[in-house]
Amino acid sequence: MPNSNFLNHYPFHIFLTRDKCITWTIEWRFHSTDIVLLDHGINENSTLSSVIENHLKPGAWNHKLKSFCAEQLDCLKIFIC
């Protein structure tokens, strides 16, 4: 029998933790790129800007995201599906 606290709706997973908090899996897709990033266990009280900010920090791996890194977070458009 499946755990009643776990709902599996691909590609997003919701889990009710002991502290009665829902955590999410977020799939990030960046326009005009083939990049797909996943964040697991994101607390329901987190803001999307604080989560995406971690992916847009300068680093060697994010060369395909440079155009997004150059923008202010307030100028980026985030679509939720």
Model description:
This protein is an alpha+beta fold and 81 residues long. It has one domain (6-74). It has 2 helices and 4 strands, in the order E-E-E-E-H-H. The protein has helices spanning 48-55, 66-69; strands spanning 6-9, 12-16, 22-29, 36-43. 0% of the residues are buried. InterPro entries: BCD1, BCD1_alpha/beta. Pfam families: BCD1 (PF25790).
Span of the ends, CA to CA: 29 Å
Rounded to an integer in angstroms, the radius of gyration calculated over CA atoms is: 15 Å
Instruction: Report the mean per-residue pLDDT as an integer.
Output: 78
Helical content class: 10-25%
Helices, by number, come to: 2
Quick structural gist:
This protein is an alpha+beta fold and 81 residues long.
Give me some keywords for this one.
BCD1; alpha+beta; elongated; 81 residues; phosphoprotein; 15% helix; BCD1 alpha/beta domain-containing protein; single chain; four-stranded antiparallel beta sheet
